[in-house]
Design a protein that fits this description.
The protein is mainly β. The chain has six helices and 34 strands. It has helices at about 125-130, 145-150, 185-195, 200-205, 630, 635-640, and strands at about 5, 45-55, 65, 75-80, 90-95, 100-105, 115, 120-125, 140-145, 155, 160-165, 165-170, 220, 225-235, 240-245, 260-265, 280-290, 290-300, 315, 330-335, 340-345, 370-380, 390, 420, 430-435, 450-460, 465-475, 485, 495-500, 525, 535-550, 560-565, 570-575, 610-615. It comes from Sediminitomix flava.
Length: about 675
């Protein structure tokens, strides 16, 4: 097993598909018979990746979603997992062979999201190394704030921009960070997530946060040093946090009356996510007299690297009347934590009424957690908290399974927590068969074509408790009345029930749990005649007796097979998949089949050609008697290269297909 360990990498790797010459045989009828096929090639466009993650104690209530790209980029989620009490997450994912990376996304505040390269079948990551990343200022381009402060006399409205730091690096990290970061424990991070849960609109879930009369600025009762500590960000922008100050009773009445905006954090972006901030980074705002008030301003996506701050960026103030919306104009929330002597500051970084005013037209989710900080003062009670609401100290977990409701896809069921789809929540993959086994077919792979969608439903321990399979038979052009089923490599007793099958020929005998009789392994027959199920989606639902590890199931669609023309023993599987106990072993090694029972070598010809292929996406079906390699122009290169060239041969890309040889309805 190849094993790659990634302790700290956020580089998205891309792969190059390179074509290679195909060795030609002269005495062959079909193009596939003219090439040399590697003996171990399995004609599968999917693979499994084992994921092992470790996370520090403070973030052990986090969940991680596994995606092809971020939600903001329109990514597809294929699974979700949670950490155990030791901070370990283990799961196994089925992914297309084309994936060179997996995007790890978390909606738990404080946990960074990034791409994890996939170059083997096992990947490890320790989040502690991500949190510890601190690139030396000397390694980054240095930008003098003196030049930025005076550059073109930059102003926002009438306010002068003034950086607190003498220098910032190209990632927007200031050089005036306190020498020792603040540290967080799990209780604190839990409280932050309970107070500002991701994708939970404040007007709906915590309307008291934005009620009239709440304070949105920091007001000092005593002379004090004031500090601000970075906690988390949940944004896709490179936002800037600034502040302005005024005497209580003399607040500016318009944004134009603010004379100076002091920049505390030039780029509120995590390490590896557009910046280099580390949770716990802390900046001293200054020493202030009693009766001073500190107002806030967030500059939307305003950090421009060596060019400093964009003065044309949207800006959102702690004074709602300064903001651009007509009514939904509050953009920050203050929450007090009297025990810790801190005040949480949460910002919403999107125009709340008109998405067209936001870069990329992102709509506001109104959760006010796009930038999270806390403010402290010395002395600790110098901040007036009279009109500041109290933090929320526990997130709801209705089913008490250890997964907070806003991260639990089954918040009312303690036995279920997450959906894990392949290929996606709504898409299909396909499996295609030639049904003349043990004789060769015509390699059009259209005798039986089945779309499938798989959902592994897991519990809080990332073990599978239920399995949903959607089965849609799209083609059965052959005259045979073929059946369809699957086999798992474990005993039938592990399945408590399976439902959704459709039998019309009376060929199948099942046990009480829905598994086929006379089988040592769990075998489920979906139907016994493809013609009676054409274009009818079956919802096959499995319930397991005990939660099982996902790797025990294997690669979706698992060991799916057909049996030909009503003959139960005439099974046709993907290459090298095991037959069931009811398969007719006398057929192995006959005609064109080169199976070797003793060597566990099944369902291939002597040239290593298969009778079935698995395609990670929905398959455009070749016309009758059209060899697959003439309809899909990169198929031969994929096969002869052992899958390394053109693993995306089935995609609808320029030069990949001959549309005239594919069925028009596809």
């Amino acid at each position: 097993m190849r094993k790659l360990t990634y302790l700290l990498t956020t580089i998205l790797l891309t792969s190059c598909f390179k074509s290679q010459d195909v060795g030609i045989k002269s005495d062959a009828q079909y193009e596939l018979e003219k090439i040399t096929i590697p003996e171990n090639f399995d004609f599968n466009t999917s693979t499994t990746v084992s994921i092992d993650l470790q996370i520090p104690e403070a973030y052990r209530k986090a969940t991680i979603s596994f995606m092809d790209k971020s939600t903001l980029e329109g990514g597809v989620k294929i699974g979700t997992g949670s950490f155990d009490s030791e901070g370990h997450l283990h799961t196994t994912l089925t992914v297309p062979e084309t994936w060179t990376s997996i995007y790890l996304e978390s909606n738990y505040l404080g946990v960074p999201s990034f791409y994890l390269p996939v170059m083997g079948d096992e990947v490890e990551l320790d989040y502690q190394d991500v949190f510890d990343q601190k690139v030396s200022v000397a390694q980054r381009e240095q930008i003098s704030t003196k030049s930025l402060n005076s550059s073109s006399n930059k102003r926002i409205a009438s306010a002068v921009i003034h950086y607190l730091a003498d220098n910032v690096d190209s990632n927007g990290v200031p050089d005036n960070l306190e020498p020792v970061n603040d540290t967080f424990d799990g209780d604190f991070i839990g409280d932050v997530n309970a107070s500002f849960p991701e994708s939970r609109p404040v007007p709906t879930y915590n309307p008291e946060y934005i009620a009239d009369g709440n304070e949105t600025d920091i007001v000092l009762n005593d002379d004090a040093e004031v500090f601000i500590t970075y906690v988390a960000e949940g944004a896709g922008y490179k936002n800037v946090l600034g502040f302005y100050k005024y005497r209580v009773g003399f607040a500016p009445q318009t944004a134009a009356e603010i004379d100076t905006i002091f920049v505390a954090f030039p780029n509120i972006s995590n390490a590896g996510a557009g910046g280099n901030l580390i949770p716990g980074n802390k900046v001293k705002l200054g020493e202030f007299e009693a009766g001073t008030a500190i107002g806030w301003v967030l500059l939307q996506n305003a950090w421009k690297g060596s060019n400093g701050i964009s003065t044309s960026a949207n800006r959102f103030y702690s004074e709602p009347s300064f903001n651009p919306e007509d009514s939904k104009n509050q953009h920050n929330v203050l929450l007090k934590d009297t025990q810790r002597e801190i005040v949480l500051l949460g910002f919403e970084d999107l125009h709340r009424e008109d998405r067209n005013q936001n870069p990329n037209r992102y709509g506001s989710d109104e959760d006010f957690n796009d930038a999270i900080f806390y403010v402290t003062a010395t002395p600790g009670d110098a901040i007036n908290t009279t009109n500041i609401r109290t933090i929320t100290t526990s997130a709801p977990d209705t089913d008490e399974d250890g997964v907070d409701d806003n991260q639990d896809e089954y918040p009312n069921d303690p036995n279920k927590a997450f959906n894990n789809y392949f290929p996606s929540s709504s898409g299909y993959s396909s499996i295609a068969f030639e049904d003349l086994w043990p004789n060769k077919g015509d390699y059009d792979f259209n005798d039986v074509v089945v779309n499938y969608n798989v959902n592994l439903i897991t519990n809080a321990e990332n073990k599978v408790v239920e399995l949903d399979m959607k089965i849609l038979t799209r083609e059965t052009v052959a005259g045979f009345e073929n059946g369809l089923g699957l086999m798992f490599n474990f005993e039938p007793s592990k399945i408590s029930s399976v439902t959704g099958m459709n039998y019309t020929k009376g060929l199948i005998t099942n046990e009480a749990n829905g598994c086929e009789s006379q089988q040592q392994n769990a075998v489920v027959i979906f139907y016994d005649n493809a013609h009676d199920n054409l274009e009818q989606e079956l919802d096959i639902h499995f319930e397991f007796s005990q939660p099982i590890e996902p790797e025990l199931l294997g690669i979706a669609p698992f060991n799916t097979f057909v049996f030909a023309n009503g003959v139960r023993g005439k099974e046709i599987h993907l290459p090298n998949e095991l037959p069931t106990d009811l398969a007719d072993e006398s057929l192995f090694g006959n005609s064109d089949d080169n199976s070797s029972v003793g060597a566990n070598n099944y369902y291939k010809t002597s040239e290593n050609l298969p009778w079935a292929i698995n395609i990670s996406r929905e398959y455009a079906i070749p016309k009758e008697n059209v060899e697959i390699s003439t309809a899909y122009k990169k198929f031969l290169q994929w096969v002869s290269s052992n899958g390394s060239s053109f693993p995306d041969w089935y995609e609808d890309k320029e030069g990949y297909r001959d549309a005239s040889k594919l069925k028009l309805e596809n």
